[in-house]
Amino acid sequence: MDTRNFHFPSFAFMFIHCFMISYAIIVRNLTTDQRALLEFKNQIFDPRNILADNWTTNTSACNWIGVSCAAKHRRVRALNLSNMGLTGTIPSHLGNLSFLDSLDLKNNSFHGHLPTEMGQLSRLKFIKLSVNFFSGEFPSWLGMLNKVLYLNLRNNNFTGEIPWEIRNLKSLETFSASNMRLVGSISASIFNIPSLKYIYLNGNNLSSNLPGDMCRRLPKLELLYLHRNEFSGQIPSSIGECSNLQNLSLALNRFSGIIPRSIGNLTKLKELYLGVNSLEGEIPLQIGNLRELQVLALDENKLEGEIPWEIRNLKSLETFSASNMRLVGSISASILNISSLKYIYLNGNNLSSNLPGDICRRLPKLELLFLHKNEFSGQIPSSIGECSNLQNLSLSFNRFNGIIPRSIGNLTKLKELYLGVNTLEGEIPWEIRNLKSLETFSAPNMRLVGSISASIFNISSLKYIYVGGNNLSSNLPGDMCRRLPKLEQLYLFSNEFSGQIPSSIGECSNLQNLSLGENKFNGIIPKSIGNLTRLKVLYLNGNNLEGKIYFFV
After folding, report:
1. In a 3-state reduction of DSSP, which class is residue 22?
2. How far apart are CA 477 and CA 69, in angstroms?
3. Strand 44-45 vs strand 87-88: parallel, antiparallel, or unpaired?
4. pLDDT of 487
5. If residue 326 lies in a helix (H) or strand (E), which one and from where to where?
6. pTM of the model
7. Can you tell me the distance from the alpha carbon of 182 to that of 176, in angstroms, rounded to the nearest whole number?
């Protein structure tokens, strides 16, 4: 190497000069970021003083709480101030954090408009501003941030239409803008972002039809939540082309027409919510193709006919809801053959037939069974006590006859039991006192007889007792309130109860409704009834009572 023309001092000077320039740029740029963050701090109220004691010029902004810097450039890369209880507005200076790629301010109390200067944050990929009080029209400048992958604005006060500029977000995968006041169509905006996988727009006032080519526009779509809006028209027959769809919720809108048969092509679907619309026709048998389906909710439409037996192919189904419609026939060959089911809502139809004796063996995971307001008949199977996971059982308003089976006392997880308005007769079995978690017992307007002292009045967890309109008899026990410390409503009207109302009735301190009318009670109305300071309804008519009612405030 020829060293004659190599001058080390000159080379060292150049190296140091370049280093100093680079260092100065880094310091200047970091100072810019620091200044923007301090301006942000000055415009917010920090009730816990988290930032007040930490965001100071004594330390580098890269060491501040909630701030992360890039290793290479030492510029602010991420700002995470979520769940800090912060209040205030966002200053325009935030737009100077030019290296920011993640902004997380969710679950605070920020308000006001988002500054348009945030449209300068061209590196942003993740925006999390949910659960605040931001207001104004939906920001159109968001369409400038074409690197954004995740955008969550839900639970704010934004209004107006979603601007068409949003379709410029060609990398966007998740869009959440639920529970706000958005209106208009989404065809020209959201439905023109082919990269989208997850769309949450529930709880707005959005309207218009779903476009027929929706699935071709959104080929990667996995989740579509549009419930609680004003969408109308038919569900497009092309819905079956959304081959990646796993969660579809169109409930609580104004959709009409039939459920398209092509919905059976959505073989990855896990949740399907179509309830509270104006859909008509029959439940398509093609739904039986959805082998991965876990939730199927069709309730409160105009659907009619029988539940197709093909539905028993849904071996992963946990929730089936088809209440308040016009369904008829038996469910033995369909619903009662899905062993994975936990929750069944079939109330308010015209379904009929008996309950099979092996219902509990068919449905070993059953936790809720709502069959009220139908045409079921026959006896409640004595094997009902084998449904060991049952927590809610409603068989009221049907045509069941016979007795209440003693085995019902084996349902130790039961919280709610509704048997009323059938033709059940006989005594309430004493085994029912084994239901130590029972909060509601409802068995009005039937032919029940005998005493309830050994059964109902021995369940300390009970809050609501409805047994009016039977032929129940005996006295009320003097220690009734100590037996039922949580009692809030006691409906015993139109029975054959007799004797005196116990003077200890004033100890039922949580009682809000007391209905003892149309019985054979006698004696004086106890003064202690005035101690029931939460009482809202008191019905004592049609007895042989005497005296006055005393209320103490």
Report:
1. helix
2. 72
3. antiparallel
4. 98
5. strand 326-329
6. 0.91
7. 12
Round to whole Å and give the CA distance between 253 and 274: 9
DSSP string, 172-238: --EEE--SSEEEE--TTTGGG-TT--EEE--SSEE-SPPPTTHHHH-TT--EEE--SS--EEEPPGG
Radius of gyration of the chain (CA): 33
- Scan for tokens 């026959």, then name that residue: 378
Length of the chain: 553
Phi and psi angles of residue 93, each rounded to the nearest 5 degrees, phi first:
-60, -20
Q: How confident is the model at residue 22 (pLDDT cuts 50, 70, 90)?
A: very low
Collapsing DSSP to helix, strand or coil, 319 comes out as strand
Q: Where are the alpha helices (DSSP H) in 341-496?
A: 359-362, 480-483
Average pLDDT over the chain reads 93
Tokens of 326: 């016009």
Alpha-carbon distance of 93 to 113, in angstroms, equals 14
Tokens 């944050």 label which residue?
121
If one counts every other C-beta atom within 10 angstroms of the C-beta of residue 309, the result is 16
**CB neighbours (10 Å) of residue 53?**
10
The pLDDT value recorded for residue 30 is 64
Distance CA 234, CA 439 (A): 43
Q: Which residues contact 346 (CB under 8 A, 6 or more apart)?
A: 320, 322, 323, 327, 331, 335, 370, 371, 374
Measured between alpha carbons, how far is residue 395 from residues 126, 317, 339 in Å? 50, 22, 20
Is the CB of residue 521 less than 8 Å from the CB of residue 498? yes
Which tokens sit at 487? 């009692």
Beta strand ranges found along 451-510 (DSSP E): 464-466, 471-474, 489-491, 496-500
Q: CA-CA distances (angstroms) from residue 153 to 35, 131, 158, 177, 417? A: 26, 8, 9, 5, 42
> What is the tens place of the pLDDT at every residue in 393-423?
999 999 999 999 999 999 999 999 999 999 9
State both tokens at 394.
């409603």
Percentage with pLDDT > 70 across the chain:
94
d(CA 221, CA 233): 21
The neighbour count for residue 408, using CB atoms within 10 Å, is: 23
How does DSSP assign 331-343, residue by residue? Answer: -TTTGGG-TT--E
* Spatial separation of the C-alpha atoms in residues 388 and 284, rounded to whole Å: 33
Q: Kindly state the helix (H) or strand (E) to which residue 33 belongs, with its residue range.
A: helix 8-42
Residue 284 to residues 191, 265, 288, 305, Cα–Cα distance (Å): 27, 12, 8, 10
> How far does Cα 270 stand from its chain's mean position?
16
Count Cα neighbours of 515 within 13 Å in the Cβ-side half-sphere.
17
